[in-house]
Every structure is written in structure tokens, then in C-alpha cells.
Design a protein that fits this description.
The complex is a heterodimer of chains A (about 120) and B (about 210).
Chain A (H helix, E strand, L loop, with lengths): L2 H16 L4 H19 L4 E8 L2 E3 L7 E7 L7 E5 L8 H8 L10 E4 L10
Parallel strand pairs in A: 4-5
Antiparallel strand pairs in A: 1-2, 1-3, 3-4
Chain B lengths: L2 H11 L6 E4 L2 E4 L5 E9 L6 E10 L12 E3 L8 E3 L5 H18 L4 H11 L5 H13 L3 H14 L5 H19 L1 H18 L7
Antiparallel strand pairs in B: 1-2, 2-3, 3-4, 4-5, 4-6
Helix pairs in contact in B: 3-4, 4-5, 5-6, 6-7
Classes of the chains: A alpha+beta (about 120), B alpha+beta (about 210).
């Protein structure tokens, strides 16, 4: 499976785990479950919840920083960033541009949407 | 987790970490001289009890307002995941062991400014300007004029000056480079001033 497949499966598992819903609270719950699942995968090339400010890795909440849901490869040289979206939410060009303005590598780093895949993930 | 929760956790970890002290969500080696060598607890939006642990170092002669982790990495648990939970039954033992095995060797080997440059060089696998800046400034602060000048040139070569923060970094590097050969004493004064400024910005005056 590719990283994108792994993340889509993690998103699907999170959506199933949380159950149906909508709105910001639901989105937060799915994000939490998704990030827990990615963490459980234990893949050293994936990091969740990384904050960047002007190419620098900074603590969560540093003024002006942007938080990326999942980052692939070294934190200081990510090859891709992933943003989880649920329901009708979409990864907009403005959001991509905002992330790329802070992530190391800038606009050479693709920022991709992760969305629950359609196939059902069997319960564990 | 709030800052006070992290501070409480950090204090409980102190017995595993000789020579460290606690300030808010950060544990670091005291006294703080030219370089901050620390462990930082960062909250997670996953839930109120989850957090990440970073080990990092920063030469303070690079002016800064924030801690940054480009010269560092997250401490991972036995399973490979990088998120920790404050309610885990063996948290203190597992985190203490991880810090002992990962953070202490990583941070403990950094004593001199040349150690800083060497450790940063070992992390420079991705042409990261912040890592290159740390190498160059540490060498300059150590008085290693030739190596610092070369490292500053390399730094400027990594930067895209159409990006404002990179332009600022390049301007500062060029100014330092132009002075380093002609007036090394002024460079030392400037680096000492930036060091004091960083210490002030990070609230570390009492730990020097």
C-alpha cells in the first residue's frame, strides 16, 4: 500500500469509528481518530500534527504558524503534506498556499487532501 | 495538557535527567551557555492527555523569538509512534527510558560550539537553511573564521530571496560574512548581543 492508501484507510477507519455526523465537532472527532490511527501505524516516515513557521518546525500554537495533519519524510524536508477533510469540506487552493508558505520546500511540496476511502474497514 | 501539567511531568522525569532543569513545558541542560539543549513537551489536538516530546538544540547566537526543532527530532516510543499519553500506566518508566536512550546521548555530546556545528552538520541531510545557519553562526561564534565564511556562503546559496524570511536570513548572513574577515571583534560583539537577545526572548536569563 502507498502512503496515500494507508492514510485513506486510516481516515476511513476513523470515520467508521466515530460514526455518522457533520459539523466542526464531528470533524474534530474524526481528525483525532485519524491521527490516532496514523500514530498506531508506527511508520517512522509519517508524523502527525507538525507546526511550521517560515520553514521552521515550531511548537503548536506558535504565533503565525500552520499545523499540518500529516507530514511524510523528514520533518525539515517533507516530501508531502496531507490535510484530512471530511463531509463537504475541501482542501482549497488558499489553504494549500498557506501551508506551502510555511512548510520547508515551499510550493515544491505537494499538499494533498486525505478523505475516507469508500471501502469498509473491518473492525479490529 | 496545560503548561503546568507538562511542568509537573517534567519535574517527575528529572531523576532520569541529571543536569536538567524545568521551565514550563521544557526541560533543558543548565547552565544555558551558548546553546539551548532541551526536551520540549508539545500538546496534541488528539485529546487533552496526549502530547509529543521533542529533543533539540539551538545555538543562541542565531537570533530567535521561539524555540524551534529543526535541530532535533521527536522522541518515539517502543511501538514507533511519536505520540505519548499522560495516562499511560508506564509513562514515566517508558518516557524516562526513551529520554535516557535517545535524548541524553543526543544532547550530552554537545558541549563546545564546534560540537554544535558538528552535530548540526550530521543533521544537515536536507539542505535546511536553519540547520546551515546554525552551523555557520556556531563556527563564527567559535572564532573559526574560514569555516564560518564558507558556511555562510553555503547558507546564502540555499536561500530563495524572493521569500521574505529567506531574504532576511540571507541579508544577515551576508552582513556577517562581510564583517567576519575584516572585523572579527565586531562579529563577536554582534553574536554575543544576539545570544543575549535570544536568551531574553526565550526567558532563560535566570538559567545562565
Amino acid at each position: 500500500m502507498t502512503t496515500a492508501d494507508d492514510l485513506a484507510a486510516a481516515a476511513q477507519w476513523a470515520a467508521q469509528h466515530v460514526g455518522p455526523g457533520q459539523g466542526p465537532v464531528y470533524g474534530t472527532q474524526v481528525h483525532s481518530a485519524f491521527e490516532a490511527e496514523v500514530n498506531t501505524l508506527g511508520k517512522a516516515h509519517l508524523s502527525t500534527e507538525v507546526s511550521y513557521l517560515n520553514g521552521r518546525v515550531v511548537p503548536r500554537g506558535a504565533p503565525g504558524s500552520v499545523r499540518v495533519d500529516v507530514v511524510e519524510a523528514p520533518l525539515t524536508a517533507p516530501t508531502r503534506g496531507f490535510d484530512l477533510k471530511t463531509g463537504s469540506a475541501r482542501l482549497t487552493p488558499a489553504r494549500i498556499q498557506h501551508i506551502q508558505s510555511h512548510i520547508p520546500g515551499g510550493n515544491t511540496v505537494p499538499v494533498l487532501e486525505v478523505r475516507p476511502c469508500r471501502r469498509k474497514i473491518l473492525p479490529r | 495538557m496545560q503548561k503546568k501539567d507538562f511542568a509537573a511531568l517534567a519535574k517527575r522525569l528529572l531523576p532520569h535527567l541529571a543536569g536538567f532543569t524545568v521551565k514550563g513545558p521544557m526541560l533543558f541542560i543548565q547552565p544555558v551557555k551558548h546553546t539551548l539543549r532541551g526536551i520540549y513537551f508539545e500538546g496534541s489536538s488528539f485529546d487533552a492527555r496526549s502530547f509529543y516530546v521533542w529533543m533539540f538544540f539551538m545555538p543562541l547566537c542565531v537570533p530567535t523569538h521561539h524555540v524551534g526543532f529543526n535541530l532535533g527530532r521527536r522522541v518515539r516510543g517502543v511501538g514507533g509512534g511519536d505520540r505519548w499519553n499522560a495516562d499511560a500506566p508506564n509513562l514515566l518508566a517508558e518516557l524516562g527510558a526513551a529520554l535516557k536512550h535517545e535524548a541524553l546521548p543526543f544532547l550530552g555530546g554537545i558541549e563546545s560550539l564546534h560540537d554544535v556545528a558538528k552535530a548540526a552538520t550530521s543533521l544537515q541531510t536536507s539542505q535546511d537553511p536553519y540547520v546551515q545557519e546554525a552551523i555557520a553562526y556556531a563556527l563564527a561564534r567559535a572564532g573559526d573564521v574560514a569555516q564560518a565564511a564558507m558556511a555562510l556562503d553555503q547558507l546564502v546559496g540555499l536561500l530563495d530571496e524572493k521569500v521574505p524570511w529567506q531574504c532576511e536570513m540571507a541579508d544577515r548572513a551576508r552582513a556577517l560574512k562581510s564583517q567576519i574577515v575584516s572585523n572579527p571583534a565586531d562579529v563577536q560583539r554582534q553574536l554575543a548581543a544576539w545570544e543575549a537577545e535570544s536568551v531574553h526572548n526565550l526567558g532563560l536569563e535566570a538559567f545562565r
